[in-house]
Input
Amino acid sequence: MIEDIVRLSGTRLGPGTLYGAIARLEQQGWIEPLPAEERRRPYRITGEGLRILRAKLTTLQQFSRVGLKRLETL
Amino acid sequence: MNSRLAHLLVFLYPRPWRERYGAEFEALLHNGGGGLRTWANVVWSAFHEHVFPTPGLNTEHSQFQSWCVRAPWAMFGLAPLLLLAAAYFVACFILWSGWKIFLPGTNTPFVPIDGLANFYFQVGRLIYFSAPIVIGWAIGLVAARQRLKVVWPGAGWLLIALIGGTAQVRASRTTVLSGVGHVRMAFALGPSVHGIPDGLFHGLVILSLAVLPYVIWRLQKALALSD
Output
């Protein structure tokens, strides 16, 4: 997961930061744990998590579109 | 990372967190690389989890929480008092030992001095002046974490500010030639400046600095709620 985040954002999260985020996302009900694979625990996004993520990404998309448009005029 | 070290790092987290995420987090640490950055990240995250627990996870009352409710006088009165006494003892010991080591012939340790001796005395000064403020921050941290009403933390802040403001260090040497140097503490309001006793003014400064982080936290919380 840490490597996936590096590929996606270029930032390497520390294990403490990653699990801090996982704990909060789970307690919010936005991700849920799957059965453990040996000692590893996979997670998957919930329906509520998908809704929130879609809303956030849409906001980001609008923000970047407007921001880039304004940059063109400078 | 070494499995024993990974196990040890997981133990820095609060028990409810460990019970839920401990095994998988330990596996992640064990499989991942170590290094100072990883350790620092885990130590900081564990500290953060103690101060600001994940909502919904730490529902059970810890021993610490129960002490805050059952004996707030001990948490916000006695404990800060003992901590402050310990800090003042260390500061006085540094002054006394520095006097003995670096200024054996002088009648007072309060003389201009340079080099290592100056650094040694400055450490004592730092402990002496910062102790009431740092303890005040700790009171605020506990109050914020436990979501307590401000009455008991307020009493703790006032107590610490009053002691910190009126505390004075006095050093004297016995009249016998090369007599033993004594360092002791006294508590007095001192002379008045513009009608305000010096000790009270210092107490107010300590109180303002000690309460500041808590006030900022309360303001931030109020602003977040009003958004």
